Amino acid sequence: MDYLLKTIIAIDNDDMRKQVVRVMQRIPAFDIVCVVKEGEEAYRRIRKLNPDIVFIEAMMPGMDCVTLIESVMKVMKDEAPSFFVGYYFFPEVLSMIAESDIVLQCHAFPLQDVVLGRQLERAADYYKSKKYVVMNRRGDSLLKENEGYYGEKSNLRDPDRVRRIVSHEMSVMGANVKYKGYKYIETALNYEMRNEEHLQNGVMGLYKTISERMGCKSTSTEKALRVAIKNTWESGNQDYFKCLWGYSEIGAWNCPNNSEFLRVVINSLEKEYMW
How many CA atoms lie within 13 Å of 82's alpha carbon, on the beta-carbon side? Predict the structure, then answer.
């Protein structure tokens, strides 16, 4: 029988708490032993129950996540659990816990159950294999630290693997395959994901590369991308875009340009898949 990860959920926000409980209950790796809404109560339960995992909201009554993590590490030391941190439009939390090597992941809400689920499953696999991951913006350190998990570094950017990742992400973001620019977005993401230096030749260099592959002019590529991104932004999965961009509303007035759209999506895929 597989080892179960004894888990405490400490979340004050009702919607976030219900979603995390719902998703974790579907994943066999997690054994939820306690659910609390307040930081000091979470601290007491952690000391008493000695869990493997704690999913904590960034800001809670009584004790925020940084204070809680520091207090737990000070008292429990090597026996301290690993943490997931969830937050609503509070990106500062990333820098607040960036140096804490017991934080497995940070999750920006709102996000879909399927996205949260696959991230939790992957983090649970890392935990069980003792390859801890720090979800922050330190870039290459993540890849080097966990290079052995996927084997050779080159395997991370295997064309077939990248195609599967991009195809799934296009579906999650709600991109309509009927749009003329669908294949252009897909081609751009595939090309950039297979190259470690994103948009290294500038967006015009990317247009040239896509145009050569699609057999059209660079001006046609730019327009097709722009129209497809605009349509996807306005009619696709708005929770997905709110999560990535940190916006409370999505509309034509804040639609990103081609290079910004590609850069943000690629950076998100990097953090999730290219450890």
Answer: 23
Closest CA to 83 of 64, 61, 106: 106
Asked which of 81, 109, 138 is the last residue of a domain, the reply is: 138
Q: In 174-257, where does DSSP find H-type helix?
A: 182-193, 202-214, 218-235, 238-245
> pTM of this prediction?
0.53
Contacts of 23 (CB under 8 A, 6+ apart): 113, 116, 117, 120
| Same domain membership, residue 190 and residue 109 | no
For 175-197, what is each residue's pLDDT tens digit?
888 877 888 899 989 888 887 66
The answer to whether 105 and 135 have CB atoms below 8 angstroms apart is yes
Residues of the domain holding 13 = 5-138
Contact yes or no for 44/10 (Cβ under 8 A): no
Residue 162 · residue 170 · CB < 8 Å: no
Same domain, 180 and 219: yes
Q: Which tokens belong to 153?
A: 């570094």
CA distance 8 to 261: 36
Query: Is 143 inside a domain boundary?
Result: no
